[in-house]
Amino acid sequence: MDKIELKERMLKGEDFHTEFNESLPDNEALAWSIVCFANADGGLLIIGASDSGAIIGVSNLDEGIRRFEDVAFNRCELPVSILAETVEEGGKTVLIVRIPKGQQRPYRTKSGLYYIRASNRCRQASCEEVRRLYQTSESIYFDEAPVVRAALTDIDMDYFKEFIEKYVGIAGSDVLMPNYLKNLRGATESNQLTLAGILFFGKKPQEFVPYSKITAAYIEGKDLSVPPADKKDLMGEIPDLLNDSIRFFRLYLRERHEIKGFEPEVYPEMPEEVLREGLVNAIAHRDYTITAPIRIFIFDDRLEIRTPGRLPNTVTVESMKLGAHVLRNPTIYNFLNKIGMVTDIGSGIPRIIKVVKEKLNKEVALFAADNEFILTIPRI
Fold first, then answer.
1. Per residue, what are the HEC states of the chain?
2. Range of the structural domain that residue 219 is part of
């Protein structure tokens, strides 16, 4: 970092990626700051500068750098790699410590506490946020976690038996069904259903996971300030959610009819394969640690599918366009793969973009917000 960049940083003030300290904090506070940046997107600790933009300087740089390295290695679990540098300004030296986004999240302090970056400050992570950190690092998969109170009796066993026979190729046996469910990670060894098991095969999944529904709304306008003309909460197993969502789309998306020869031909406003790809992508890749439903909106000028959760790991909007994907829910993805709704090559988003361009001559918009991914397909 040079003097110009330092001044620009100081003018912006503290934010999600930057923290100022007038002097070296104690070791515990240093550990908090290092851990919270490593658990987020990384960032800068700038020592010897105030929030108001005044350069104060660090008196003992060697000691400061040694303390940072000691804390990062010995007081953080796992150890965090840091890079220290200095900038001279007005005869005073500012210490800048770069903390990269951790590759082995979540990190915690030696005292056993997890911290995350929230806006321009560090705070202790909640249990849900810690689970989310484990999930994003692929240390655990949330769709394999057991669901409280959900047992084998809550499975639609007729549907599961049909799934086994049709898509796995095994002759159904009532006695062996529980073992098949466990082998597919739809249930634990103690016969407790996993999240994937209850969502895909449960009789009433939303009784156990209320936010696993899809909220669908038709709005006669162009923004959410307009009350919906129709709104439905779609319930049921994942295959039911897909089919019911398509039915909702059919209600409000236009169809063009042309007579060719003696028979009419129907041209839907949007290809059904695009709608199905978007829905499957949302169900397969949403963050199930966030207690919010998938939302679909049909506006006058566009269709939106809103998926709860940030993009996982190193996935970006640009990499998604090229087919990059990271499995956030591998068991749910495996079930969808078996019924032919997904592939293992991450082609969903590129296919949506290609089909919309070829058949509608329109451009798809992708937007990653803090806790939501939005797929937008123009209507007009």
1. CCHHHHHHHHHHCCECCEEEECCCCCHHHHHHHHHHHHHCCCEEEEECECCCCCECCCCCHHHHHHHHHHHHHHCEECCCCCEEEEEEECCEEEEEEEECCCCCCCCEECCCCCEEEECCEEEECCHHHHHHHHHHCCCCCHHHCEEEEEEHHHECHHHHHHHHHHHHCCCCCCCCHHHHHHHCCCECCCCEEEHHHHHHHECCHHHCCHHHCEEEEECCCCCCCCCCCEEEEECCCHHHHHHHHHHHHHHHCCEEEEEECCEEEEEECCCHHHHHHHHHHHHHHCCCCCCCCEEEEECCCEEEEEEECCCCCCCCHHHHHCCCCCCCCHHHHHHHHHCCCCCCCCCHHHHHHHHHHHHHCCCCEEEECCCEEEEEEECC
2. 211-378
